[in-house]
Amino acid sequence: MNCPACDHQLTETQVGAVVVDICQGGCGGIWFDAFELKRVDERHEAAGEHLINIRRNPDRPVDLSRKRACPRCAGVKLKRHLFHPRSTVEIDHCPSCAGYWLDAGELEKIRLEQRSDATAAKSAQPSHVSMDVIRYMYRMQVQMRASA
Description:
Elements: E1 11-15, E2 18-22, E3 30-32, E4 79-82, E5 90-93, E6 100-102, H1 106-123, H2 131-147
Antiparallel strand pairs: 1-2, 2-3, 3-6, 4-5, 5-6
């Protein structure tokens, strides 16, 4: 399987209970099949630590504006969107197989955001779901239906 960002050969790597595909020696990105990302995205997940410092080749340029093909699904392009409504991290998601592509450094950013969110949640008062979150969820549903 080839990397959707730099076309380097992906390497299967056992991380805790999951096997992920990493671009070791290429751009340093990671492919997660459906539901695998949830097992390593949170900072307390020790398995994810092995994915923070993947060996990269600085001569492998990555064009972030290029549409990327799913490494699992022939002819399917990945959709780029925020990891969650309050996130600043954009990730690539396959609408067909539900896999996720994370560029180098994105997993670490996600884990840092979640740690910040957890700290903020402890000090915050209970609140209602904002209209921004509802609009974001609606847009995501419409996009998923349109691409199906």
